[in-house]
């Protein structure tokens, strides 16, 4: 019989693969696919049912409401909000703050790079950030503690 720890690790690694794909599309096209977000959501539910995953719907729901407000105020993109909402379902309550702090600190170099780029290229219009990269990095670092077998 397959061990729950192996299922947990396989699902987390699959989520990592989905996040790497979303990084590519976010950098190249500034789009985070709804399909990727749905796959991550389904994997989170499967990990809760078959593996050792958490189901943190309260943090996810609270962020979804706050994220929608940020989206309508044009502070964040809809793909970023959906991605964080789907990932928050998998993160235990005691790791949520760590996830947000790491994601924020990984987003700072992106913002600095965008400011320098805008200044050097004399770009008149706004520049968007591929913040999916920071979200992915934050989740990768946070989810390292989710592994039971490999680490």
Automatic annotation (TrEMBL):
Record-linked InterPro entries: Preflagellin_Peptidase, Prepilin_IV_endopep_pep
Domain Prepilin type IV endopeptidase peptidase positions: 15-112
Topological category with respect to the lipid bilayer: Multi-pass membrane protein
GO MF term list: aspartic-type endopeptidase activity
Gene3D superfamilies found in the cross-reference section: 1.20.120.1220
Highest taxon listed in the record's lineage: Bacteria
Gene Ontology CC entries for this record: plasma membrane
Name assigned to this protein: Prepilin type IV endopeptidase peptidase domain-containing protein
Organism: Gilliamella apicola
High-level lineage: Bacteria, Pseudomonadati, Pseudomonadota, Gammaproteobacteria, Orbales
């Amino acid at each position: 019989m397959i061990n729950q720890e192996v299922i947990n690790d396989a699902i987390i690694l699959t989520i990592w693969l989905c996040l790497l794909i979303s990084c590519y599309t976010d950098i190249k096209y500034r789009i985070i696919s709804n399909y990727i977000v749905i796959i991550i959501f389904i994997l989170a539910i499967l990990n809760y049912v078959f593996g050792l995953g958490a189901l943190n719907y309260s943090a996810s729901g609270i962020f979804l409401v706050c994220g929608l407000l940020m989206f309508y105020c044009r502070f964040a993109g809809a793909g970023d909000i959906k991605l964080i909402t789907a990932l928050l379902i998998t993160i235990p309550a005691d790791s949520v703050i760590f996830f947000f702090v790491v994601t924020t600190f990984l987003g700072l170099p992106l913002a600095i790079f965008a400011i320098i780029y805008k200044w050097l290229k004399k770009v008149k219009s706004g520049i968007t950030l591929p913040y999916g990269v920071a979200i992915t990095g934050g989740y990768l670092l946070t989810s390292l503690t989710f592994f039971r077998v490999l680490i």
